[in-house]
Design brief:
single chain; alpha+beta; Four Helix Bundle (Hemerythrin (Met), subunit A); Beta-Lactamase; six-stranded antiparallel sheet; 6 strands
């Protein structure tokens, strides 16, 4: 591509895409930090509210305990009720989940019922009617206290679910931004690569040179001809040199189209049964004879192969798991978070191991056995990194996998 304007435009486009991806990543990271702090504050306040709810029940039951001063326990219930209401107000200010807010409203309603029951129980206890107070406390009072605790637990579960959903969406946005910038940069680099044109003009000029030299050779004597009154013979004009024909830039390689399609399908993946087919297309884009997707266990001490392409089921079963501290490229990529390569040996292919990075750390590794010295080609390594970044958004964090019985969340 020889147009200076087009080359500058493509360069600015690539730089702009990378800058935009960096800005989006920074914004997402800041938002994630804010969400983490809000979640921690919600958990602390929820623990205080739950303690107050249990104190309410136990203190009210002490009204009718033998040898107890009911006035002391009246004050304890009052203090616990005020603390619980303040905790509920703090919980409402730190959650954005509508389901959690609805559960907190149920807790408020349960506290209102509890207070009505408590006023009647106090009157019975103060009048010495302990039997009536006991019947009210251990029936209606116990039921109202249980509703408060159940509502608090429901709000915590709804808030956790909402935050996990938001975190997954944030990870997808970050990966799409990074993947989009990478694709734009790769396409721009391919278009900016200079083309080698055939030296047609030089060949034509060199072919004409002997003819022109012969026609202007000083050995040709024109003096006698001029003396005889014969005009100087005109020099023959050189044949016009045809302009060099521009060579159209070649179309983008099929690998780029395949890579873009793979990233799009991964972003829209909703059924894990389609993962093997996508891995097959990924292997085709990377010119890989085999590809394995390794996922870390909840403790981050082992890597387990959950999907593969290019290997028989028996081979995949024999792979088993890898220790995170093993001396191989896959384990090294997981520990360091950096892409690792293994050079090809005579009679064998090279290998690439790319970490699946996410805001919470490395979640696994994508390893590929590549042909034609692919481990030495920057474009091939960049393509593998783009696919790995997309795969990282489909793999849940270790904590989520632990709750689901050790299976990857996709």
């Amino acid at each position: 591509m020889r147009s200076r304007v087009v080359r500058v435009t493509l360069t600015l486009l690539a730089v702009g895409a990378i800058a935009a991806a960096a800005y989006i990543t920074r914004t997402i990271h800041t938002r994630s930090d804010t969400e983490v702090r809000a979640a921690a504050a919600f958990d602390r306040t929820h623990a205080v509210a739950l303690k107050d709810a249990y104190d309410l029940r136990s203190a009210q039951q002490a009204y009718v305990a033998a040898g107890q001063n009911e006035r002391f326990w009246f004050d304890r219930v009052t203090v616990a009720t005020e603390s619980l209401r303040a905790a509920l107000a703090a919980l409402r200010s730190t959650t954005t989940s509508q389901a959690a807010l609805a559960a907190l409203e149920d807790a408020d309603a349960a506290i209102e019922d509890f207070e009505q029951i408590d006023r009647r129980a106090r009157k019975y206890a103060a009048d010495g009617q302990r039997l009536l107070a006991s019947d009210l406390i251990f029936s209606d009072g116990l039921e109202a206290g249980g509703r408060i605790i159940a509502a608090l637990d429901g709000s915590a579960g709804a808030d956790t679910t909402a935050r996990e959903t938001a975190a997954a969406e944030t990870g997808r946005q970050q990966t799409l931004a990074a993947g989009g910038a990478g694709v734009v940069a790769i396409v721009a680099l391919l278009l900016l690569t200079p083309l080698v044109a055939a030296p047609a003009t030089a060949t034509l000029e060199s072919g004409l040179a002997p003819t022109v030299a012969a026609e202007t050779s000083p050995e040709i004597e024109l003096g006698p001809l001029l003396d005889e009154g014969i005009a100087e013979a005109p020099r023959p004009e050189a044949a016009p040199v045809p302009p060099s024909v521009g060579i159209a830039p070649p179309p983008l390689p099929d690998e780029i189209h395949t890579l873009a399609a793979v990233c799009t399908e991964l972003a829209r993946l909703s059924d894990t049964r389609l993962l093997p087919e996508i891995l097959e297309r990924t292997a085709s884009a990377l010119d890989a004879s085999g590809l394995v997707l390794w996922i870390a266990d909840p403790d981050g001490k082992e890597l387990v192969a959950i999907a593969a392409h290019g290997y028989a089921d028996s081979v995949l079963a024999r792979m088993g798991s890898l220790k995170a501290d093993d001396e191989n490229a896959t384990a090294a990529a997981f520990r360091t978070g950096l892409l690792q390569t293994v050079s090809a040996a005579p009679g064998s292919n090279g290998a690439i191991a790319v970490p699946l990075l996410a805001p919470g750390g490395c979640r696994g590794v994508m390893s590929a056995e590549v042909r034609s010295d692919g481990e030495k080609q920057p474009a091939r390594l960049a393509a593998a990194s783009i696919v790995a970044a997309q795969l990282a958004t489909l793999v849940g964090p270790p904590a989520a996998r632990a709750q689901e019985g050790g299976t990857a969340a996709i």
